[in-house]
Amino acid sequence: MREMWRTPAGRGFLMLAVMSATFGFAMNAQNGIVTNYLDQVLHLSGPQFGYWTAIREMGGFVLIFLTALFYRVSLQKVTAGALVVFAIGCAFFSLANDFWTVIPWTIIGSFGLHTVLQTQIALGMSLTTENRSGSILGRMSAMGQIGTFAALVMVYLLFRFQWLSYRPTFIILGGVAFLGALAIVRFPHLHEGQVRMVAPKREPIVFRRAYGYYYWLVFLDGARQQVFFSFGLWVLVNHFKLDVEHISLVLIAVTFGCMISVSRLGRRIDRHGERRSLTVINLAYVAALLGYALSPNVWVACVFYFVYAVIAPLSFIGASTYLRKIAAPADLAPSLSMGVTMMHAAAVVVPVATGFILNYVGYQVPFYAACGVAVITIFVTLRLNPAKQRCAARIAADAAATAECAES
Fold first, then answer.
1. CA–CA separation, 171 vs 95, rounded Å?
2. Degrees (nearest 5) of the Cα angle 32, 297, 254?
3. Pairing of strands 190-191, 194-195
4. Per-residue pLDDT tens over the stretch 206-218
5. Local confidence band at 88 (pLDDT 50, 70, 90 cut-offs)
6. 3-state class (DSSP) for residue 190
7. Which residues, 6+ apart, have CB-to-CB distance to 397 below 8 Å?
8. What is the pTM assigned to this prediction?
9. pLDDT classification of 381: cutoffs 50, 70, 90
10. 23 vs 49, 79, 259, CA distance in Å?
11. Which domains are delineated in the chain?
12. CA separation (Å) from 65 to 10, 59, 328?
């Protein structure tokens, strides 16, 4: 531990690890109890739950505009500010008493949450070189899962022994998110793991044809993920009648699985490349989604929920490492923001549509549709070829770097 503090990249890793753990703690503990809170305390119906989910995703949908607004502010300060905003939204969630009073705090928290989801990826990739991006993002995800594991254990104990109710728990989670802001605000300015005296330059808004496959990957990822994560837990709560303690146990199992697997799987993306890795991952999505939709009982449903949730972080990791290989350095952070915005363009529409059709069909139908999205994604991944799909600015930057190394 002492050795790591001796280098800027080592200090950055520790700061980002603490931030990822506290952010994972707050975000996933909130996700772990919010479905029961909306169902049992605020008494939201299935369609209302879909509408609330769509509103929650608005922060991701407008992220590109927020990024453009603050593009002159360093990523670490943007991340710290976003964590403070998320903390406020999370803590004040406790004031809600119906659908309409939960909406303002949902929107505020959403702005902070989705900003951090993007900026932590860019900060993580600044710690290391291109060929180790998957590994470092996997390690960062594992740190977040450690925080999540601690949070879910806390939630289980609080509700199992009735030490606290929903509302004070939300306030505690807001406080933990604020600690994450304090941890990341002094993150060093890095590029390729090397320290810089000033923050790397970022473009305000980036949308380039050369990044088309990345946009398709994240758009389809958003559509598929929102079906599962908007209604996966809802099915367990509403259809299979699981309470907070049992939902917490399911999420603890998922988190433990992520803790021990995501870092290793991130390294496999580095080793085997995005095309092969993402193809296998999407085939696994198809199997997990079909299994979940056809589950005859709660035990089988929980197994397929576990399988899907454990591999879910890998899609965004794979898309992000692919983008890093083809994008100009100055385009990386704003392009990640554009990707999150495109992901949530689907995420805003899907929960509303799904919530509406749940009035007329069984809960299985949206999961069948998500299978179709995963199949389409497979055809996109088969067309990935980072070496031949670099943008012109990236080719020029690589040529300049090669010439500089040759001269030295």
1. 10
2. 35
3. antiparallel
4. 778 888 999 999 8
5. very high
6. strand
7. 328, 329
8. 0.72
9. very high
10. 24, 11, 15
11. 4-403 (1.20.1250.20)
12. 32, 10, 20
